[in-house]
Write a structure and sequence with these properties.
The structure is a homodimer. By secondary structure, the first copy, chain A, is of the alpha+beta class. In chain A, about 45% of the residues lie in helices and about 20% in strands. The structure holds a DNA duplex.
Chain lengths: ~250, ~250
DNA sequence: CGTCTAATTGAAGCATCTCAACATGCGTGG
DNA sequence: CCACGCATGTTGAGATGCTTCAATTAGACG
């Protein structure tokens, strides 16, 4: 149980509520099995019956579904601290795939151990439940974007969400954030073609809202970008302090 | 605590796992406050901080968000047995609205009572958690439809979902099901204009997949409709027997 | 440097939207 | 029981946001 793994999970839960020292101890002593994945590898697949959950420790992963015709729809993006298959604790069969986007390190924990932890510490159980509820809140926001917003607003919104979530785990510097997703992957998430994502990036740049670099992005006009994306971070249900300055 | 309310909630939980007699007793003795709503009334609103949860006993409700410009995006549809604001137990602030579509009867239960129930019966707690996870699974499927499927497939999929869910609670007769949603409301759910929903209905009829009546719909070709909508009921995570014959 | 992946741009096509008109059905009051 | 009014459903025609196909450029890495 390496320090990095404790750190990511502990930070995640702390970003949600205050742990007592007993709870902290219990989480910290959870035995993880650490595993490395290359980019574009599946962690678990549609129809699988997982027996463990994974905490992302490093890198980026996504949930996705395969569409008839060969394409895929990305359902959510996951960064360090996320537990993207926590639902498998109570939903036996996977109804989607979970895979990496970049190189990633994950910590694997057996379902039984998590169940025991939650029985012994009901408040921790509630905190884990809460993380799955926040997941659902993010899904709702994505539905809204896909159903009712233009490509311009959708992309702006996605960038806002990534910025706030990455800032909450200390991965941003000022208004710079890492962005290793390809435009094709962003298209798979936003339900847009690669070509149109490219044109939409161009439009966001032309509106002086962002600057793009190789594998990072700078927000030039944060209020403007939020407005363009109709972004209100409330749906992320972060504690006030994790929203950070600005 | 009228029999109808017990019935809907009990059936819901039974459709998810086997209750012991003690658990059954505990659920059955939950004190509900029954309330009636007219069509198109809000049960709770964005930014509210609910102190109770509602079980739909009769009628239809939906979650929705208001979009800049006045439109709205419907996020999910809810029928008898659903607890569409169960998330408020752990997410203080509503990030969307919850309103009725038709006339509806709901049973209200205070958060505290639910929390006590779950502390006393952890397996019931898991069952409630599971219902919110199934909600999230439905969101994922909607994201897939909105992001990657044509209007034709989206509408077919929605009808399949409504059919299976209504059949699971005994609201269908053969291949007939009630359908009180207006085409405008369906458009708000599918991210389509009212006009295009109308044309898509016409196309589904022309393909001999469905027949439409005033406030009900008959599925003429169930395998065909499922194929058209790329519908696989696995994401609803129903127990096998509630999937019923066929 | 050559090779590979990702980003960029142009041009034509199409799914879906908007605007507008009209039809149908149902409830209500006279 | 009929007549009106309102909500819902239906259809036509033109506009547009996004897609697809195709080609080119730029960057990263051995």
């Amino acid at each position: 149980m390496p320090p990095a793994s404790q750190h990511a999970l502990f930070r995640k839960l702390s970003s949600i509520f205050d742990l007592t020292s007993a709870e902290r101890e219990a989480v910290t002593s959870l035995p993880f099995h650490v595993r490395e994945y290359g980019p574009r590898q599946d962690i678990s697949r549609d129809h699988d019956r997982p027996t463990q959950c994974c905490v992302i420790l490093e890198g980026m992963a996504c949930r996705y579904k395969i569409i008839r015709g060969g394409g895929r729809q990305i359902l959510s993006l996951h960064i360090a601290g996320d537990i993207p298959d926590l639902h498998s604790l109570h939903l036996d069969v996977m109804d989607h795939n979970l895979g990496t986007l970049s190189h990633a390190t994950v910590g694997l924990v057996h379902h039984d151990l998590l169940r025991n932890l939650m029985r012994a510490h009901p408040r921790l159980g509630d905190a884990f439940w809460r993380t799955t509820l926040i997941d659902a809140a993010v899904f709702r926001e994505w539905i809204t974007g896909l159903g009712a917003r233009s490509a311009f607003a959708r992309l702006a919104h996605l960038l806002c969400e990534l910025f706030v979530r990455q800032r909450a785990i200390g991965q941003t510097a000022g208004f710079d954030m890492p962005l290793t997703l390809t435009q094709g992957e962003i298209g798979e998430a936003l339900g847009l073609s690669l070509v149109h994502v490219n044109r939409t990036f161009k439009a966001l740049r032309a509106a002086h809202l962002i600057e793009t670099h190789r594998s990072s992005l700078t927000i030039r006009d944060w209020p403007g970008l939020q407005f363009a994306g109709e972004f209100d971070p409330a749906y992320l249900h972060l504690r006030q302090q994790t929203l950070g300055p600005q």
